[in-house]
Amino acid sequence: MKEAVRVVMADLQVVKAPIILITIGLGSCVGITLYDPIIRIGGMAHIMLPYQHKNSAGGKPGKYADRAVPYLLRELLSRGAVRERLEAKMAGGAQMFPSKGTKADDILRVGQRNVEATLEALAKAKIRLVAKDTGGYHGRTLEFATLTGSLRVKTIAHGEKHI
Amino acid sequence: MTDRILELSAHQFDVLKEISNIGAGNAATALAQLIKHPIKMTVPAVQILSFDEVANVAGGADAIVAGILLEVSGDLQADLLLLLPWSQASSILAILLDQKTSSFHDLDEIEISALEELGNILANSFLTALAKFTKINFLPHVPSLAVDMAGAVLNLPLARLGESVEQALVIDTKFHKQRQSVDGYFLFIPRPKDLEKFLHNLEVVSR
Predict the structure, then answer these.
(1) Cβ-proximal residues to A109 (8 Å cutoff; 6+ apart), any chain
(2) pTM (2 decimals)?
(3) Which residue of A8, A12, A26, A28 to mutate against B (max B Cβ within 10 Å)?
(4) A22 located within any domain
(5) Which residue of A has its CA nearest to B54?
(6) Which domains occur in chain B, in start order?
(7) ipTM score for this prediction
(8) What is the pLDDT of residues B122-142, one digit of tens each?
């Protein structure tokens, strides 16, 4: 069993191969991984919200899409990764609670907004997205193998895939 | 570790526990009528937990749970989430409907409605008790059900809270039926902007 590091809600971690990065139970949250396949270093964040409000100070950088992506990028670059080589993968952003046709529906779509904000942050940081498994109505657990760059997406009733 | 932004005084804890127990009593009465079985409900503890700890009380982020979410408006905005380990939700469902429960990913409309109704009854009983003591008016909206990994079910209500607070108020709820007891968890999550009002009104409740 290879060593694994768990990324909890709103958390962010960077590790070297062969350590595996794991995040359990993504619903509306988005899991993002950035990986440099040459030096085999990878980072993962468990994003809860699309943007940090301008007037809210502090908080964990991993919590917001617009902070998590640049933060992960900086961490990776400082450890020798090269931006042009970086490969991003993302999963999650589901809608866990079905909408009931009320005004609250907009908030239920936080998953979709998380996905959009993450894509936007990646584009802004000029990082290439190579794979994604987002949306739907179910939870996901992620295991990122820094040895190969493979992201394993597990669900409890919708099978499992490697992206 | 996150900062303990959400802090309750001993008095606020006591008041909340007492109110929750009264709410649970009302809920048990309503539930007993529905299932035609005597059932008791108690609240052994009220706690403030970090996001990650919340998932742990329900058996871990990957444990299968039923979550029934109700948005609350009125004098303050909040989310109420009833969290039941799937094994427990499934036994409650079997009692409610007097039939074998389908697999968790294949629930029929009646089973979904029954669980939503369960959430409705419990939420309303709790809110009625809370309103009476705190003089805050609550308007619960329609319940919505998700059955999946605990972490995934918790994402949404915690994300709404997550803007400025990293903890939630968790009310442990025990259902006792004959010799059996079932553990459930009730999360009351006032929006950050209304948190102070809620805590203030709790503080001034005299016992």
Answers:
(1) A95, A99
(2) 0.86
(3) A28
(4) yes
(5) A9
(6) 10-203 (3.40.1550.10)
(7) 0.87
(8) 888 888 988 888 888 999 888
